[in-house]
Protein backbone atom coordinates (compact mmCIF):
# COMPACT_ATOMS: atom_id res chain seq x y z
CA UNK A 1 0.00 0.00 0.00
CA UNK A 2 2.63 2.53 -1.14
CA UNK A 3 0.05 5.20 -1.91
CA UNK A 4 -0.39 5.81 1.85
CA UNK A 5 3.09 7.22 1.99
CA UNK A 6 2.65 9.57 -0.93
CA UNK A 7 2.35 13.25 -0.18
CA UNK A 8 0.56 15.90 -2.12
CA UNK A 9 1.61 19.53 -2.14
CA UNK A 10 -0.95 22.33 -2.32
CA UNK A 11 0.03 25.91 -3.14
CA UNK A 12 -2.06 28.89 -2.14
CA UNK A 13 -1.33 32.17 -3.96
CA UNK A 14 -3.32 34.96 -2.25
CA UNK A 15 -2.42 37.58 -4.87
CA UNK A 16 0.49 38.49 -7.17
CA UNK A 17 2.51 40.33 -4.48
CA UNK A 18 2.03 37.79 -1.68
CA UNK A 19 4.17 34.90 -0.74
CA UNK A 20 3.08 31.53 -2.05
CA UNK A 21 2.05 29.14 0.69
CA UNK A 22 2.55 25.46 0.36
CA UNK A 23 0.79 22.64 2.20
CA UNK A 24 1.64 19.01 2.06
CA UNK A 25 -1.01 16.42 2.92
CA UNK A 26 -0.62 12.75 2.93
CA UNK A 27 -2.88 10.56 0.81
CA UNK A 28 -4.52 9.11 3.96
CA UNK A 29 -5.60 12.54 5.17
CA UNK A 30 -6.93 13.42 1.75
CA UNK A 31 -8.93 10.19 1.62
CA UNK A 32 -10.29 10.74 5.14
CA UNK A 33 -11.17 14.33 4.24
CA UNK A 34 -12.92 13.20 1.10
CA UNK A 35 -14.85 10.60 3.07
CA UNK A 36 -15.85 13.19 5.66
CA UNK A 37 -16.95 15.60 2.95
CA UNK A 38 -18.96 12.91 1.22
CA UNK A 39 -20.54 11.94 4.57
CA UNK A 40 -21.42 15.56 5.31
CA UNK A 41 -22.89 15.94 1.86
CA UNK A 42 -24.87 12.74 2.22
CA UNK A 43 -26.09 13.77 5.64
CA UNK A 44 -27.17 17.14 4.32
CA UNK A 45 -28.98 15.55 1.42
CA UNK A 46 -30.64 13.05 3.77
CA UNK A 47 -31.62 15.80 6.21
CA UNK A 48 -33.00 17.85 3.35
CA UNK A 49 -35.04 14.93 2.07
CA UNK A 50 -36.28 14.13 5.59
CA UNK A 51 -37.20 17.75 6.12
CA UNK A 52 -39.20 17.81 2.91
CA UNK A 53 -41.01 14.57 3.90
CA UNK A 54 -41.66 15.77 7.45
CA UNK A 55 -42.96 19.05 6.13
CA UNK A 56 -45.58 17.15 4.14
CA UNK A 57 -46.43 14.96 7.13
CA UNK A 58 -46.65 18.00 9.39
CA UNK A 59 -49.06 19.58 6.93
CA UNK A 60 -51.17 16.43 6.90
CA UNK A 61 -51.07 16.26 10.69
CA UNK A 62 -52.15 19.89 10.88
CA UNK A 63 -55.04 19.15 8.55
CA UNK A 64 -55.99 16.05 10.55
CA UNK A 65 -55.76 18.01 13.80
CA UNK A 66 -57.91 20.78 12.35
CA UNK A 67 -60.50 18.23 11.18
CA UNK A 68 -60.44 16.47 14.56
CA UNK A 69 -60.88 19.80 16.32
CA UNK A 70 -63.88 20.59 14.11
CA UNK A 71 -65.36 17.17 14.77
CA UNK A 72 -64.81 17.63 18.49
CA UNK A 73 -66.45 21.03 18.44
CA UNK A 74 -69.38 19.53 16.50
CA UNK A 75 -69.62 16.73 19.06
CA UNK A 76 -69.72 19.28 21.87
CA UNK A 77 -72.39 21.24 20.03
CA UNK A 78 -74.42 18.08 19.41
CA UNK A 79 -74.00 17.10 23.06
CA UNK A 80 -75.25 20.50 24.17
CA UNK A 81 -78.22 20.16 21.83
CA UNK A 82 -78.89 16.65 23.18
CA UNK A 83 -78.70 17.89 26.76
CA UNK A 84 -81.12 20.67 25.87
CA UNK A 85 -83.51 18.13 24.32
CA UNK A 86 -83.25 15.94 27.42
CA UNK A 87 -84.00 18.93 29.63
CA UNK A 88 -87.02 19.75 27.47
CA UNK A 89 -88.20 16.13 27.62
CA UNK A 90 -87.79 16.17 31.40
CA UNK A 91 -89.79 19.39 31.62
CA UNK A 92 -92.53 17.80 29.51
CA UNK A 93 -92.47 14.69 31.71
CA UNK A 94 -92.78 16.90 34.78
CA UNK A 95 -95.81 18.64 33.27
CA UNK A 96 -97.35 15.29 32.39
CA UNK A 97 -96.89 13.95 35.92
CA UNK A 98 -98.70 17.02 37.26
CA UNK A 99 -101.56 16.38 34.85
CA UNK A 100 -101.58 12.67 35.77
CA UNK A 101 -101.76 13.59 39.46
CA UNK A 102 -104.71 15.83 38.69
CA UNK A 103 -106.48 13.07 36.78
CA UNK A 104 -105.78 10.51 39.50
CA UNK A 105 -107.45 12.74 42.06
CA UNK A 106 -110.28 13.40 39.62
CA UNK A 107 -110.82 9.62 39.52
CA UNK A 108 -110.91 9.58 43.32
CA UNK A 109 -113.46 12.37 43.24
CA UNK A 110 -115.60 10.48 40.73
CA UNK A 111 -115.38 7.38 42.91
CA UNK A 112 -116.54 9.37 45.93
CA UNK A 113 -119.39 10.93 43.94
CA UNK A 114 -120.40 7.53 42.59
CA UNK A 115 -120.51 6.08 46.09
CA UNK A 116 -122.59 9.03 47.23
CA UNK A 117 -124.98 8.70 44.28
CA UNK A 118 -125.75 5.07 45.08
CA UNK A 119 -125.97 5.73 48.80
CA UNK A 120 -122.68 4.20 49.97
CA UNK A 121 -121.60 6.20 53.00
CA UNK A 122 -120.91 4.94 56.55
CA UNK A 123 -117.20 4.29 57.09
CA UNK A 124 -116.31 5.69 53.68
CA UNK A 125 -117.50 9.24 54.41
CA UNK A 126 -114.08 10.32 55.68
CA UNK A 127 -112.40 8.89 52.58
CA UNK A 128 -114.92 10.68 50.37
CA UNK A 129 -114.28 14.00 52.09
CA UNK A 130 -110.55 13.49 51.76
CA UNK A 131 -110.95 12.62 48.09
CA UNK A 132 -113.04 15.74 47.52
CA UNK A 133 -110.52 17.92 49.32
CA UNK A 134 -107.62 16.36 47.43
CA UNK A 135 -109.43 16.67 44.12
CA UNK A 136 -110.22 20.33 44.84
CA UNK A 137 -106.57 21.04 45.46
CA UNK A 138 -105.62 19.12 42.34
CA UNK A 139 -108.20 20.97 40.26
CA UNK A 140 -106.35 24.13 41.19
CA UNK A 141 -103.07 22.47 40.26
CA UNK A 142 -104.59 21.36 36.98
CA UNK A 143 -105.53 24.93 36.18
CA UNK A 144 -102.05 26.11 37.17
CA UNK A 145 -100.18 23.39 35.28
CA UNK A 146 -102.53 22.88 32.32
CA UNK A 147 -100.79 21.47 29.26
CA UNK A 148 -102.94 23.56 26.93
CA UNK A 149 -103.82 27.25 26.92
CA UNK A 150 -102.01 30.59 26.76
CA UNK A 151 -98.48 30.76 28.14
CA UNK A 152 -95.72 33.36 28.22
CA UNK A 153 -93.06 35.03 30.34
CA UNK A 154 -89.35 35.69 30.23
CA UNK A 155 -87.12 32.87 29.02
CA UNK A 156 -84.12 32.25 31.32
CA UNK A 157 -81.43 29.55 31.09
CA UNK A 158 -81.88 26.50 33.34
CA UNK A 159 -79.25 26.02 36.02
CA UNK A 160 -77.91 22.64 37.10
CA UNK A 161 -79.46 23.07 40.55
CA UNK A 162 -82.87 23.81 39.04
CA UNK A 163 -82.65 20.73 36.82
CA UNK A 164 -81.63 18.57 39.79
CA UNK A 165 -84.60 19.89 41.77
CA UNK A 166 -86.95 19.24 38.84
CA UNK A 167 -85.61 15.68 38.53
CA UNK A 168 -86.17 15.05 42.26
CA UNK A 169 -89.71 16.45 42.15
CA UNK A 170 -90.61 14.49 39.03
CA UNK A 171 -89.23 11.28 40.52
CA UNK A 172 -91.19 11.88 43.74
CA UNK A 173 -94.38 12.51 41.77
CA UNK A 174 -93.91 9.33 39.73
CA UNK A 175 -93.28 7.30 42.88
CA UNK A 176 -96.35 8.86 44.48
CA UNK A 177 -98.45 8.08 41.40
CA UNK A 178 -97.23 4.48 41.44
CA UNK A 179 -98.23 4.16 45.10
CA UNK A 180 -101.62 5.76 44.44
CA UNK A 181 -102.28 3.37 41.55
CA UNK A 182 -101.42 0.36 43.71
CA UNK A 183 -103.74 1.64 46.44
CA UNK A 184 -106.54 2.57 44.05
CA UNK A 185 -106.65 -0.79 42.26
CA UNK A 186 -108.19 -2.76 45.16
CA UNK A 187 -110.24 0.26 46.26
CA UNK A 188 -111.82 0.61 42.81
CA UNK A 189 -112.48 -3.13 42.62
CA UNK A 190 -114.18 -2.97 46.03
CA UNK A 191 -116.16 0.09 44.99
CA UNK A 192 -117.19 -1.68 41.80
CA UNK A 193 -118.51 -4.65 43.78
CA UNK A 194 -120.25 -2.43 46.34
CA UNK A 195 -121.81 -0.23 43.65
CA UNK A 196 -123.06 -3.33 41.80
CA UNK A 197 -124.65 -4.60 45.02
CA UNK A 198 -126.11 -1.17 45.75
CA UNK A 199 -127.50 -0.92 42.23
CA UNK A 200 -129.25 -4.25 42.68
CA UNK A 201 -130.61 -3.07 46.00
CA UNK A 202 -131.72 0.26 44.54
CA UNK A 203 -133.38 -1.49 41.65
CA UNK A 204 -135.74 -3.34 44.01
CA UNK A 205 -136.18 -0.36 46.36
CA UNK A 206 -139.06 2.05 45.53
CA UNK A 207 -137.03 5.24 45.33
CA UNK A 208 -138.78 7.02 42.44
CA UNK A 209 -142.05 8.91 42.18
CA UNK A 210 -144.73 6.67 40.66
CA UNK A 211 -146.22 9.63 38.77
CA UNK A 212 -145.02 12.67 36.87
CA UNK A 213 -147.10 14.82 39.19
CA UNK A 214 -145.64 15.93 42.53
CA UNK A 215 -148.93 17.26 43.95
CA UNK A 216 -149.73 15.45 47.19
CA UNK A 217 -153.44 15.71 48.06
CA UNK A 218 -153.43 13.57 51.22
CA UNK A 219 -150.56 12.37 53.41
CA UNK A 220 -149.96 9.10 55.25
CA UNK A 221 -151.45 8.65 58.73
CA UNK A 222 -154.54 9.76 60.61
CA UNK A 223 -156.90 12.02 58.68
CA UNK A 224 -160.58 12.90 58.32
CA UNK A 225 -162.20 10.46 55.93
CA UNK A 226 -163.51 12.38 52.85
CA UNK A 227 -166.69 10.29 52.79
CA UNK A 228 -167.58 9.86 56.49
CA UNK A 229 -165.72 12.88 57.94
CA UNK A 230 -164.51 10.63 60.75
CA UNK A 231 -160.90 10.15 61.85
CA UNK A 232 -159.35 7.21 60.06
CA UNK A 233 -155.90 5.96 59.22
CA UNK A 234 -154.79 6.68 55.68
CA UNK A 235 -152.56 3.75 54.69
CA UNK A 236 -150.83 5.48 51.81
CA UNK A 237 -150.15 8.72 49.99
CA UNK A 238 -152.53 10.40 47.53
CA UNK A 239 -150.90 12.11 44.53
CA UNK A 240 -153.19 14.28 42.40
CA UNK A 241 -153.05 14.34 38.63
CA UNK A 242 -155.01 14.16 35.39
CA UNK A 243 -156.92 11.13 34.20
CA UNK A 244 -154.75 9.11 31.84
CA UNK A 245 -151.41 10.24 33.30
CA UNK A 246 -148.92 7.32 33.32
CA UNK A 247 -148.25 5.42 36.54
CA UNK A 248 -144.79 3.90 36.96
CA UNK A 249 -143.47 0.92 38.89
CA UNK A 250 -141.40 2.39 41.73
CA UNK A 251 -138.92 -0.51 41.68
CA UNK A 252 -138.09 -3.82 40.02
CA UNK A 253 -140.47 -6.58 41.01
CA UNK A 254 -143.21 -9.02 40.07
CA UNK A 255 -146.89 -8.11 39.63
CA UNK A 256 -148.84 -10.29 42.07
CA UNK A 257 -152.24 -8.55 41.75
CA UNK A 258 -153.83 -6.64 38.86
CA UNK A 259 -157.59 -6.39 39.28
CA UNK A 260 -160.49 -4.23 40.50
CA UNK A 261 -161.96 -3.87 43.99
CA UNK A 262 -164.76 -1.66 45.42
CA UNK A 263 -162.38 0.38 47.59
CA UNK A 264 -159.18 0.49 45.46
CA UNK A 265 -160.82 0.42 42.04
CA UNK A 266 -158.38 -0.70 39.35
CA UNK A 267 -155.23 -1.50 41.28
CA UNK A 268 -151.84 -3.21 40.95
CA UNK A 269 -149.74 -4.83 43.71
CA UNK A 270 -146.05 -5.44 43.05
CA UNK A 271 -143.79 -7.66 45.19
CA UNK A 272 -140.16 -6.59 45.54
CA UNK A 273 -137.36 -8.22 47.55
CA UNK A 274 -136.91 -8.33 51.34
CA UNK A 275 -140.65 -8.49 52.03
CA UNK A 276 -141.35 -5.11 50.43
CA UNK A 277 -144.42 -4.39 48.30
CA UNK A 278 -145.93 -1.35 46.57
CA UNK A 279 -149.63 -0.84 45.87
CA UNK A 280 -151.13 1.47 43.18
CA UNK A 281 -154.90 2.20 43.32
CA UNK A 282 -157.75 4.09 41.54
CA UNK A 283 -156.28 3.60 38.04
CA UNK A 284 -158.39 4.43 35.03
CA UNK A 285 -156.70 1.56 33.19
CA UNK A 286 -154.36 -1.31 34.15
CA UNK A 287 -151.46 -1.85 31.72
CA UNK A 288 -149.83 -4.98 33.17
CA UNK A 289 -150.79 -8.51 34.16
CA UNK A 290 -150.16 -10.85 37.08
CA UNK A 291 -146.77 -12.56 36.87
CA UNK A 292 -145.15 -9.81 34.79
CA UNK A 293 -141.57 -8.92 35.74
CA UNK A 294 -141.47 -5.15 35.76
CA UNK A 295 -138.47 -2.79 35.91
CA UNK A 296 -138.26 0.44 37.84
CA UNK A 297 -139.94 3.11 35.72
CA UNK A 298 -142.09 0.75 33.63
CA UNK A 299 -145.65 2.00 32.96
CA UNK A 300 -148.13 -0.23 34.78
CA UNK A 301 -151.34 1.80 34.37
CA UNK A 302 -153.09 5.14 33.88
CA UNK A 303 -154.08 7.55 36.63
CA UNK A 304 -157.83 7.75 37.30
CA UNK A 305 -160.61 7.88 39.89
CA UNK A 306 -162.04 4.37 40.10
CA UNK A 307 -163.20 2.79 43.36
CA UNK A 308 -163.56 4.82 46.53
CA UNK A 309 -162.25 8.13 45.18
CA UNK A 310 -163.34 11.77 45.03
CA UNK A 311 -161.29 12.68 41.94
CA UNK A 312 -158.35 11.72 39.69
CA UNK A 313 -155.36 10.71 41.82
CA UNK A 314 -153.06 7.79 42.63
CA UNK A 315 -153.30 6.16 46.03
CA UNK A 316 -149.75 4.86 46.60
CA UNK A 317 -148.79 2.46 49.39
CA UNK A 318 -145.48 1.00 50.59
CA UNK A 319 -145.80 -2.21 52.59
CA UNK A 320 -142.91 -3.85 54.50
CA UNK A 321 -143.51 -7.36 55.85
CA UNK A 322 -147.27 -6.73 55.83
CA UNK A 323 -147.07 -3.36 57.60
CA UNK A 324 -147.99 -0.10 55.84
CA UNK A 325 -145.30 2.60 56.14
CA UNK A 326 -145.14 6.22 55.05
CA UNK A 327 -144.14 6.29 51.33
CA UNK A 328 -142.80 9.87 51.57
CA UNK A 329 -139.19 8.93 52.56
CA UNK A 330 -138.98 6.71 49.47
CA UNK A 331 -139.87 9.52 47.04
CA UNK A 332 -136.27 10.61 46.45
CA UNK A 333 -135.75 10.59 42.70
CA UNK A 334 -137.32 10.91 39.27
CA UNK A 335 -137.26 8.16 36.68
CA UNK A 336 -134.21 9.78 35.02
CA UNK A 337 -132.15 10.19 38.18
CA UNK A 338 -132.96 6.97 40.05
TrEMBL record:
Residues 120-142 are annotated as: Disordered. One of its GO terms (molecular function) is metalloendopeptidase activity. The chain crosses the membrane at residues 27-51. Residues 58-103 form a coiled coil. The keyword Cell inner membrane does not apply. Keywords: Coiled coil, Membrane, Transmembrane, Transmembrane helix. Residues 233-327 form the M23ase beta-sheet core domain. Gene3D superfamilies: Glucose Permease (Domain IIA) (2.70.70.10). The keyword Transmembrane applies. PANTHER family: MUREIN HYDROLASE ACTIVATOR ENVC, PEPTIDASE-RELATED. This is M23 family metallopeptidase. It comes from Cohnella herbarum.
Amino acid sequence: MKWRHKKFTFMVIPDANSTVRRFQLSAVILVIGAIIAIAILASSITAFLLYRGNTGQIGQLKQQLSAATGDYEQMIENKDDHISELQTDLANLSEQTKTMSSRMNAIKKLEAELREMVGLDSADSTKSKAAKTSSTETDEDAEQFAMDGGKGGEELPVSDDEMALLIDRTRDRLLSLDEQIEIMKPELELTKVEVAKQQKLLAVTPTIWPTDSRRITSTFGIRKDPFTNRATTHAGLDIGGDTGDPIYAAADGTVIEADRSPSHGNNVLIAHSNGLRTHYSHMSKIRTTVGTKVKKGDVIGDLGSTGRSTGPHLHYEVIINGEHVDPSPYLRATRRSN
